[in-house]
Structures
1.
Amino acid sequence: MNVNEINILVLAYLGDTIYENYVRRFLISSGLANVNDLQKAAVKYVSAVGQAGFLKLMLENNFLTDEEISVVKRARNYRTTSHPKNCDIITYKYATGLEALIGFLDILKRKERIDKIMNFILDK
């Protein structure tokens, strides 16, 4: 399977589940035991605003490879008319870019790179 032939939103769909799993495991390991507290803490990481912010921080710090930036741009530039009501379209597209990157890396079985990206995010 050629990962570049997979619809970028499908990669984002996959990446979203992987990303959220990392966040949930991180929050549980931090000692949070109440589901409501976990949900509130997760918003910082899983909201479109949070994801877009982390992606921009990675870009500013030259953390991503050229290949990874290409995937992010492909997702960011994908033509779509829908986005959540709680954020603007630009923020949504950056968040989609991060999710697509995680999905892309997962399809390529690059778990170590996903770990590094998620450690970058979860250390912030």
2.
Amino acid sequence: MPRHGRGWLMGEGSNYGGHHSPLTISILEPALLILLKEQPRHGYTLLGEIETLGMSTIHPSVVYRTLREMERLGWVQSDWDIDQTQGPPRRIYRLTGQGEEVLQIWRCELEKNQKMISDLLKRING
């Protein structure tokens, strides 16, 4: 099981390639908000989309837990999609007005952190 505290990278039996960093988990929330701003989506579709963003190591339960928390906060809302022709009904998630406001705060935070990460990478590279 991956460790996500201090020393997560060098923990016992560490295999970096299969684990996500605490940084990856911290940007899951804005990633989901961005995807839902693009268009409403089913949870299963969101799982596939976050994989394309390089977040394939995040367990689906973490994604669904984050969606439920964002719904509790009023940032997203979900309804049952009963118009499907195959399988049981699934929830479709969409961004709310409050979610749009939160996404703008995240935009500022991501821009600030992008500069900080860029500065750190410059120092690593000398």
3.
Amino acid sequence: MLDQLYAYFGTRDIPGEPEALARLAKRVAELAARNGEEWVWANREILLMQWRMALSHDTPRVAVAQGENKRDDGYC
């Protein structure tokens, strides 16, 4: 599945842990089925930018879910 993702994006330089990349590959396959492989290729730079943004915004939620970044007053 990752090989197809790399083919769609034209690169193997995609950030993320293996589990996250598997989710991305599944989503991109869904987009290709819905919109066509040509659409994914034409929009690959936008999709990669959105993926990088999603990863950068996901980090704080993961930390809070793991009990990090707690305030002394009991609020996250």
4.
Amino acid sequence: MDLRSAIKEIRSGQPRPVYVLYGKDRYRMQEFFTSLTDQLLGPDEKELGIVKFDTAETLIEEAVLEAETMPFFAARKIIMIRDQTLLAAGKDSKLDHQPDRLLEYLKEPCETSTIVFLVQADKLDERRKLVKRLKDLDVLLMFQELEGNDLLRWIMKRAQSQGRELSEDAAELITIRCGHNLQQISQEVDKLCLYVGDGGKISRTEVDTLTIPSVEEDVFALVDAMASIQTKRALELYKQLLLRKEEPIKIVALMARQFRIMLQIKELEGHQYTPQQIGSRLGLHPYVVKLSAEKARRYEASRLASELSRLAELDFQMKTGQIDKVLGVELFLLRMGA
């Protein structure tokens, strides 16, 4: 089952007797569950209409028994079951669950009950009879982490739902600073929406002003300064990272990653790859590819390879105590600008 079909069914007032939510994106799983309860229960029905279980603490038979019981003071009952063992791959339960009890229930489920599994795992164990049956019923909903344009659209839609307009380049900067963490992204978008007010527009300027740059972004700026032979600027950025208690070894690792990305982009561009193809191949956002490609053009491939080798040697010296960590990075920056 796909997510859109599930939402359409629920909005039409025809939910299925059971749904299984699983995957890496726990935020959207919870968002789906909240939307389901909003559609099926009135504001005054939620307290009595939602019953929660956890298979780590309670046998599945008890949840089934609850599903078989008619709801009180609510038109429908939603049985929410958190699970890490009954359906998940590679997990064993300490409790003696009887999944056949649920299989029997699914033959003739209660019309006024909806069971929703929130599986805290990236995949299900499809060898299990219960999982196979649920798959046959077409009630499995996988929540993968949003990437690329899908993530940008999600960000822009969240702002739009609050009566604000958020530009695509603003959304791109948010993803650079927050990664794929929808919890953090949603908080930042809500903060920006509050800042610009009803009907306001959120541009890259607002994002740059109100959100905190990530360590990766600061290291990117540091590499950019080195590429532009702005040694003083590079040293200032490095000192700012140290003031934020960032570990020099981590900074070196991130610098190496950026040089490696530039070298890979340079090689792929030589084979006529497009930015989208490069992003897909390297697992990077096209916007990051674009910025890295601009920096890569300032270097010969041999120079990038040489700097990578020097960073590897510096990493070894720092970890073996052959050189002071803070001083080692400073010397590297000075030699690059020489």
